[in-house]
Amino acid sequence: MRILIMGGDGYLGWPTAMHFSSKGHDVAILDSLVKRYWEAEFGAEPLIPVSSIQTRVRGWERATGRKIQLYIGDISTNHRFLYDVIERFQPEAVVHYAEQPSAPYSMFGREYCVETQRNNVVGTLNLMFALQRSAPDAHVVKLGTMGEYGTPNIDIEEGWLDITHNGRQDRVLFPKKPGSFYHLSKVHDSNNLEFACRIWGLRVTDLNQGVVYGIETPQTTMDKDFVTSFHYDAVFGTVLNRFIVQAVNGIPLTVYGKGGQTRGFLNILDTLQCVELAVENPADRGEFRVFNQFTEQFSINDLAAIVQRVGKGLGQDVVVDHIANPRVELEEHYYNAKHSKFSDMGLQPHLLTDDVVARMWETVRQNQARVHHSLVQPDIKWKQG
Amino acid sequence: MRILIMGGDGYLGWPTAMHFSSKGHDVAILDSLVKRYWEAEFGAEPLIPVSSIQTRVRGWERATGRKIQLYIGDISTNHRFLYDVIERFQPEAVVHYAEQPSAPYSMFGREYCVETQRNNVVGTLNLMFALQRSAPDAHVVKLGTMGEYGTPNIDIEEGWLDITHNGRQDRVLFPKKPGSFYHLSKVHDSNNLEFACRIWGLRVTDLNQGVVYGIETPQTTMDKDFVTSFHYDAVFGTVLNRFIVQAVNGIPLTVYGKGGQTRGFLNILDTLQCVELAVENPADRGEFRVFNQFTEQFSINDLAAIVQRVGKGLGQDVVVDHIANPRVELEEHYYNAKHSKFSDMGLQPHLLTDDVVARMWETVRQNQARVHHSLVQPDIKWKQG
Question: Which residues of B touch A173 (CB under 8 A)?
Fold first, then answer.
């Protein structure tokens, strides 16, 4: 299958590209590389040095004999570039990771908020128009986030909700209450995409993904050039990655507030599995399909306790610090999010065992010298504007 | 009260500015004048010539002795200008009409879609940041549209919905299913504003306004320079205005498809009344309040029949034509939208009587020579992309 990975230079995009290429698909990567610039703005360095995308792709061809095509350009500011790529490559599936992915980044001030929403919303609009123009049958697998839902007091369904109101019934998009300008950009995308399915008959799978953890996939470990960008900093890092880096370095874990915040989580290996299941079982023409993509729910306190326990087993004392919450969010709440659709399709989850954490711990330990302690303290506060 | 009218050069903005000024408020208008450019792109001329905003404001001062301050600039591309206006004028209320207001415009192609969403979403984001920075206590009265809801098979509540799901309860934003990229931009705005109320404690009233009809307010008729822009064309005109222009000119009324499409409608006089009620009874700090702003529901066929009946009384045969629907929408559907909040606050509706239509008919007849027949045929098709 011809699969276009948009954002194929990123934490998940690059492993996804290698994954599909190793399965024999015809893979192309599209990326603007602007994420590397955003990281530079905050001095956020990945834990393990990341090669250039050109080096990665060349190395991949050398190691496997498989070619990954590379298109460098910005889909949000240069729609002609995107039109050309879609026209020439004629993708059967588009996996769309090409967005600004950080909630704190989007909350750093007006420019960052506007840049996040402009980049994400306009890039996705341009993709919709490019497909409608040259590849209307292509299946879009769009990365959204569980954070779009917020923490409602009712069960979270997978995208759509069957509703009865005053004795009448309808099926509606699940009401969302996102927690940052970044999360809002994903909600805007979902609404725009649902409309494109309705009026143009595009086919879209919207993945509301949980928080991803993990560094390694079968491909990233093949060569130092295939490593993916593992962030532990307070801007681009996700919580479990950050906790393990803190623990290994003897820094107290920074739990925001009470720590009862509960979210869905998944291993990077399951991101690959889910995206593959979605690609192999496309949405119908005109269908806007939503899957909740995570395998387990944890509270932040749960995760801190797991890291503490694994540390103890490895002879390291881990201190847990409850710091003032930089975000505006409920710290104790109901949370029950459905995630049966991928299970029904055959997902075999990689759960968060102590062994998994210990293996991450070991990888982090080997790269301990590169950790910048100052990067893990949150400086971006939701209330400040 | 210090009231800032954003988009104060528009169809509703200018009458709103005069209305508040005549009541003794301290009014300022902010406008980029870009709407005049958008009209020029399509050759859409208002039925009655509209004076420049400078002439309007000078004339208003001459006629009433009341000064309306004027700020010309673009809130979506020049946030420093907006920051300055908010800082200097220190509004107590901001009435925000400053958006691209046409669904067909937003559906004319990629540039128009992107320009609509960028202009509307970024302009509103910039306003949120400007208020948070310099006037966090100001009350925002934001113009949205009933079209954000679409045509669900359940009753439409006013913005929020009390929901019971699997035995648990929550209050959620009413699920929306907008029918154009323009309507989507308003949904994005609502989601962004609700978040700003939650994290910064802004106070916002979101008005989901029905389709407005009418030409005259007590102020627009005072002087030829005070006339407001009445559009009858297929891009910027609303349906009843267009039908009356067609009827007066002996052109068949263009009903899109079956004509069972039902919407909420209101007289321009009730727009003024509703906005005033909202301004005089502000939302609380942190409150995101939603009112459905319309007085009556009609189907498109209902409106055509009314115009036909009024025409008959005036001795003119009116032909109703059902043309291929350029939009993608349900043409027969359930529609029951609540609109009791403004009634509870004291709204005295101006209903759509035959006399009201006859009065509009007469005004249109006096300006009949200026009608361009080609402008009323819809050229913009939802399916074409």
Answer: 175-177
| Strands ordered across the beta sheet of B93-96 | B69-72, B26-31, B2-6, B93-96, B139-145, B203-209, B288-293
Decide if A279 contacts A1 (C-beta within 8 A).
yes
Residue A185: both structure tokens together: 């950009």
Compute the average pLDDT of residues B262-283: 98
Select from A118, A153, A187 the Cβ nearest to the Cβ of B118: A118
Chain B positions touching A132 (Cβ under 8 A) are: 385
State residue A373's pLDDT score: 85
Cβ pair B369, B248 in contact under 8 A: no
Query: Residue A95's beta-bridge partner residues?
Result: A5, A141
- Token duo for residue A331: 């710290």
CA B143, B203, B177: angle at the middle one, nearest 5? 45
How far from chain centre, in Å, is Cα B158? 17
Domains of chain B and any CATH numbers: 2-376 (3.40.50.720)
Residue A375 confidence (pLDDT): 86
Reduced to 3 states (helix: H, G, I; strand: E, B; else coil), residue A88 is: helix
**Distance (Å) from the C-alpha of residue A382 to the closest C-alpha of chain B?**
7
- Tell if the CB–CB gap between A177 and B176 is shorter than 8 Å: no
Q: Do B153 and A170 touch (CB under 8 A)?
A: yes
Query: Which residues of B are designated catalytic?
Result: 145, 182, 186
- Residue A385: what pLDDT? 77
The list of chain A residues with pLDDT below 70 reads none
Kindly report, residue by residue over B177-192, the tens digit of the pLDDT.
Answer: 999 999 999 999 999 9
State ipTM: 0.97
Cβ separation B191–A178 shorter than 8 A: yes
* Residues B170, A192: C-beta atoms closer than 8 Å: no
Rounded Cα–Cα distance for residues B290 and B272 (Å): 17
**Cα–Cα distance for residue pair A319/B370, rounded to 1 Å:** 78
Distance CA B30, CA B33 (A): 9
Measure the CA dihedral A50/A55/A58/A62, to 10°.
Answer: -60
Residue A112 and residue A105 in contact, taking contact as beta carbons nearer than 8 Å: yes
Chain A: residue nearest B119 by CA?
A118
Residue A8, min C-alpha distance to chain B (Å): 24
Neighbours of B377 (CB within 10 A): 12
**Nearest-neighbour CA in chain A from B371: distance (Å):** 32
With CB atoms and an 8 Å threshold, state whether A175 touches B163.
yes
CA distance A12 to chain B (A): 27
For B81, phi and psi rounded to 5 degrees?
-60, -50
pLDDT at residue B379, rounded to an integer? 87
Phi then psi for residue A138, to 5 deg, are -65, 145
Tens digit of each residue's pLDDT (9 = 90 or more) over B111-138: 999 999 999 999 999 999 999 999 999 9
The type of residue at B143 is L
Note whether A286 and A197 are within 8 A (CB).
Answer: yes
Helix (H) or strand (E) holding B362: helix B354-366
Predicted confidence at residue A169, as pLDDT, reads 98
| Spatial CB neighbours of B306, under 8 Å, sequence gap ≥ 6 | B298, B352, B354, B357
User: Which residue of chain A has the CA closest to B83?
Assistant: A110
> Closest to B175 (Cβ–Cβ): which among A166, A172, A383?
A172
**Which residue of B76, B124, B195 is the best one to mutate when testing the A interface, meaning the one whose CB has the most A CBs within 10 A?**
B195
Task: List chain A residues with CB under 8 Å of B382.
Answer: 199
Residues of A with catalytic function:
145, 182, 186
CA A141 to chain centre: 12
Q: ∠ CA A226-A229-A234 to the nearest 5 degrees?
A: 170
**How does pLDDT run across A122-179, given as a tens digit for each residue?**
999 999 999 999 999 999 999 999 999 999 999 999 999 999 999 999 999 999 999 9
What is the total residue count of chain B? 385
